[in-house]
Design goal:
- The complex is a heterodimer of chains A (170) and B (207).
- With 170 residues, chain A is an all-alpha fold.
- Chain A has ten helices and no strands.
- In chain A, helix 1 packs across helix 4, helix 2 crosses helix 4 and helix 4 runs parallel beside helix 9.
- The longest helix of chain A has 20 residues.
- With 207 residues, chain B is α+β, with helices and mostly antiparallel strands.
- In chain B, 36% of the residues are buried.
- In chain B, the strands form two sheets. In chain B, strands 1-2-5-4 form a four-stranded antiparallel beta sheet. A three-stranded mixed beta sheet of chain B has the order 3-6-7.
- Chain B is elongated and about 80 Å long.
- The termini of chain B are far apart.
- Helix content of chain B is 27%, strand content 19%.
- The interface between A and B is medium-sized, with 40 and 28 residues.
């Protein structure tokens, strides 16, 4: 008996949220993430005979969405670099960008990471891919994945560490 | 905070994000994606069609008078069925899709023609390979003339042809160099032409 074939609707129902969350963390904009993920799923539907045999169809969808984002960026040739943490922290529209359902403090911390580190965090922790599959999706070496994840976690830990209570003395 | 706690915090931060696009909307877009598998070269070569417009009129066979326009004017499209069954289509303007569709159907081709609006929802794209598509339809140019050749004999059983444009994707119309300087350039060419294969049905291909 061959490998079990997934029904597209079932696959979409079971994986759309995870794929959207993964892409959201990677691209940092909820509307963009939704567009990319919808288009990636549409392409999966169009090639479903092939995709349903893929060992990790969710990874295929996310990789397609990320590739679409690159194509989109190349077409538009515009990007808003987020290199200054102070600038990010002051952005009034952070809540709007991610939607009110996302913790803005965590999202700001994620946005401070370089794009590649954010992608690694998203694929490893949100989509729950192993190091090898993450490396495959991003086209980088497994060792590089581990290095990016280690740096990202260290940076996030510093950013998200609860601030110690200051003692007040009278 | 250890790695596990941090990972849990990150996961929890996005649990409120849900994909809310209905699956039938995804499938609808997927059908359009699949139907837009083009014959290589068609889109690029179509840019030359307007320039070949007057030469194209000379291709008009007596059986299909090309919208019955004088040869001095542009025909929107022309259809010629050859004795071997192949159908030659030239399109100068993306207008009168219903007329083109009726003419092609009269020649025995199960076809859906759509210029401007999105693909008909009554059409379901066929998941045939690009090799099949290339065997069914090809784009040719010769002696400055550009035309689409459809080989109905290569169509798989219960499969028809979809001819459609992609609005906004093409260059603006250009005046054919051989056209009368006093006449307007052809209007209505809104984008490159694409060919797809669809499931044959009464609603989509008329058979």
């Amino acid at each position: 008996m061959g490998p079990q074939r997934l029904d597209f609707a079932e696959f979409y129902r079971n994986s759309a949220d995870e794929c959207l969350r993964t892409v959201l963390i990677s691209v940092s904009d909820q509307d963009t993430a939704r567009e990319l993920v919808d288009e990636a799923f549409a392409r999966a539907w169009a090639s479903w005979r092939t995709i349903n045999r893929h060992p990790a169809p969710k990874a295929w969808v996310v990789r397609t969405a990320l590739n679409l984002n690159v194509s989109r960026w190349r077409r538009r040739r515009r990007e808003v670099p987020v290199s200054d943490p102070g600038t990010v922290a002051d952005l009034p529209a952070v809540g709007e960008t991610f939607g009110s359902t996302v913790d803005p403090q965590i999202m700001v911390a994620l946005m401070r990471l370089p794009a590649r580190q954010r992608q690694v965090v998203a694929l490893r922790l949100i989509l729950d891919l192993d190091t090898g599959r993450t490396a495959e999706v991003l086209g980088i070496a497994p060792g590089t994945v581990m290095a990016h994840l280690g740096r990202a976690m260290a940076a996030l830990r510093i950013d998200l560490q609860p601030e110690p209570q200051q003692e007040t003395r009278s | 905070m250890n790695d596990d706690e941090l990972a849990t915090m990150l996961r929890d931060s996005v649990t409120g994000v849900h994909a809310n696009t209905p699956v039938n909307q995804i499938a609808s877009r997927g059908r359009a994606v699949r139907a837009r598998r083009r014959i290589p070269g068609v889109a690029a070569a179509m840019a030359g069609v307007a320039g070949a417009a007057l030469a194209v009129v000379a291709l008009v066979p007596s059986s299909h008078p090309a919208n019955r326009v004088p040869t001095a004017q542009l025909a929107a499209w022309t259809v010629a069925k050859h004795t071997d069954g192949d159908i030659y289509v030239t399109i100068n303007e993306l207008r009168d899709p219903a007329g083109l569709q009726a003419t092609l159907r009269a020649d025995g081709l199960p076809v859906n023609v759509s210029f401007g609006p999105p693909l008909s929802t009554s059409c379901q794209a066929d998941d045939a390979s690009k090799d099949v598509l290339k065997a069914v339809a090809e784009f040719k140019t010769s002696d400055g003339r550009a035309y689409l050749v459809i080989h109905p004999s290569a169509l798989p059983s219960s499969v028809g042809v979809s001819i459609f444009d992609e609005p906004g994707a093409g260059k603006p119309p250009v005046r054919p160099p051989t056209q009368d300087p006093g006449s307007l350039p052809p209007a209505g060419i809104t984008g490159p032409l694409a060919i797809g294969l669809v499931h044959e049905s009464q609603a989509c291909t008329g058979s």
